[in-house]
Amino acid sequence: MDITEYIKLVFTDYTLRTITLGTAILGAVTGMLGSFAVLRKQSLLGDAISHAALPGIAIAFLITGAKDSNTLLIGAMVSGLIGTFWIRGIVTKTHLKSDTALGLILSLFFGFGMLLLTFIQKQPNANQAGLDKYLFGQAATLVESDVWLMAIVTGICLLVMLTFWKEFKILLFDADYTKTLGFNTKFIDILITSFIVLAIVLGLQTVGVVLMSAMLLAPAAAARQWTNSLSVMVLLAAIFGAFSGVFGTAISASQNNLSTGPVIVLVAAVFVVISFLFSPSRGLLFKQVRFIKNRRDLQLHKTLTFMHHIAETHEDISHPHAIKLLNNFQGYTKTTLQKLVDKDYVELHGNMWSLTKTGFETAANLYTKQSTEDE
Amino acid sequence: MSSAQIEIQLIASVVAVACAIPGTFLVLRKMAMISDAISHSILPGIVVGFFITQDLNSPLLILLAAFTGIITVVLVEYIQKTGLVKEDTAIGLVFPALFSIGVILIAKNANDVHLDVDAVLLGELAFAPFDRLLIAGTDVGPKSLWVVGTILLITITLLILFFKELKVSTFDKGLAASLGFSPAIIHYGLMSVSSVTTVGAFDAVGAILVVALMIAPAATAYLLTTDLKKMLTLAIGFGIFSAILGYWMAHWLDASIAGSITTVLGLVFLLVYLFAPSKGIIAVMYREKQQRTEVSLLTFLLHLKNHDEIEERHVNHLNEHINWQKVRSKTVLDLAQKNNLIHIENKVVSLTKKGDEFTSKAIDYIITNEDAQIEDMKDDFFLFRG
């Protein structure tokens, strides 16, 4: 299947269109909210919430006895929120650290959810089949109404974010200051957290419990590498998330037996790897390049300074010296010498070198600059 | 009780002990989430091992899975070191990616074998006794009991051998390094033990219960003691207790054993979280309330000392001026009166001699902010105790 054919199919095929749209919207909203989670050092909160949602789904089913996805989502949302606030309670009221609290709530809630699910499976109700799709997610089960729900939630989320943008931003970077300014930090905090929980719960059905946390983190972590501005980061994360959804769906649709969730996560991971390596200001590649360049400059300057010291002893700064003189000096190599010639600092005549006027001045300045910096 | 029931409880208890020991150190080292990460990211190791051997019982699977666990730790640390993202983000990026690879490998190649994702994640303890270990044709017991038992034996040996090193490097990395034992070796040793334990145990009880058994007993114990040896003992105790009670709860409810053991772990934690003598929520809230009252009392006494005017010292003034609610002002007044710090005449409050002395000392403390001052106050007055 080539690309144009695939694109045509996206517009004509109901299932493919629904899944593509759904994963794209999901990626966008998780990327957007994930930026806040990542910056607030709550990266693993997503993992904990997505596990903590399970007992809520089970209890909602036990109460209503129906597999209506909206009811189940509300159940998931409620237990996700309980989990989140319990985590916060553990961290603030006891000396247990946040990682312990997260791991604890994550495993305990999930285990309790499993207990309920197995309990439900024993019930004489044929309706329960497919509840465990929430564990691993099945994008194929998305229907148009799910996509509409996601779109509406994303819309509300966007609206709230724009309204409270200033508050969100200031809370992220200086919570204490926000409090002194008179903002209700608790309210803003609960607002952000609730939306994060909501986004995760929305994604459970599509990519499943384990992979939902990656959806929240990966686009944001990738976006963080390209910018220092919050608004750009949120936008980029939304774009990365949406593209992960679209590409992931496309790849998994093009082959048999390829579940959508994991592929989306891997596409998002590719975005992260690319960002880690190639982002201009923070990326590992350019960092290494800068590192090597700095070391070369240092070598060059060392040679130049050494030559300057020799030249200083003569009245004529361009007095030629033998290259042999440099042999005892560590910074000297053939290439650095050639570089200095290229920069017109040094002239080479056979086995003899001499400083040019610019070379002498640069070296002298280098020296004064260093000594002033030392002071 | 049938022999299968005894065996299940035995396996669950052995797993609980094997998990509680490394779990205690993970909790103390603020690395609890790494156990969750390992439990998910070993999946590709198992799958690749299965592709190589085509045998779900091969020891190579366990080796490869444990190796994947260590790779996870190394990757997480590498990403942390680059400084591109904060520490916890590194964990959250690594394990879902590895887990995804595992899921895709299974879906693409091994769909028709017993290896499926929910079995790996959830496990089924009820089946563990059916998988017997045969030596020269004789049945020597369930295989998982041998596997986890061996791991437990190794863990205990390592714990006894390196207890001092573990202890020092957990609480003071710098000291450990200066005493000559490398924190890195201890760190990777602990990670390897955690990884091997996770792998050995999840086959029997599932990944989620492994995480719960590592973190929950240790966290519960940590709320009750700060002594390392006591914490280890308590954690082991909570683990065994939950394993056995959880088994009977599952038996009674006819539900997943792993799920009910986790639920019991959760209930035990909840109880301790609420009622632990000094670190439980109720104790903490009571203490906070008392501290608030003490602060109010002090504010009130300072107010009295600063004002000689009658109207400023009227009882009703508490409600109007200082803006305290009735209940609170009554609590403060009662407390002050009970300790002979004030006396009330015609609804006008004034400091007694003792109250005056106390307030002067308090001002002294506030101004100098020296701990020695408050130590004296603790001796003189019942307040500020605890």
Number of helices of chain A: 16
The gross shape of chain B turns out to be elongated
What share of residues are in beta strands of chain B? under 5%
Give the SSE string of chain B: HHHHHHEEHHHHHHHHHHEEHH
Largest sheet of chain A: 3 strands, antiparallel
Quaternary? heterodimer
Number of strands of chain B: 4
Strand content of chain A: under 5%
Q: What can be said about the biggest beta sheet of chain B?
A: 2 strands, antiparallel
Number of helices of chain B: 18
Q: Largest chain-chain contact?
A: A-B, 62 and 62 residues
Please provide the count of β strands of chain A.
3
Backbone CA Rg of chain B: 29 Å
Task: Please tell me how large the radius of gyration of chain A is.
Answer: 30 Å
Helix content class of chain B? over 70%
What is the overall pLDDT average of chain A?
A: 84
Arrangement of strands in the largest sheet of chain B: 1-2
- The low-pLDDT segments of chain B are none
- Low-pLDDT segments of chain A: none
Tell me the series of helices and strands of chain A, N- to C-terminal: HHHHHHHHHHHHHHEHEEH
Keywords:
heterodimer, A: 375 residues, 3-stranded antiparallel sheet, B: 386 residues, mainly alpha, 4 strands, 76% helix, elongated
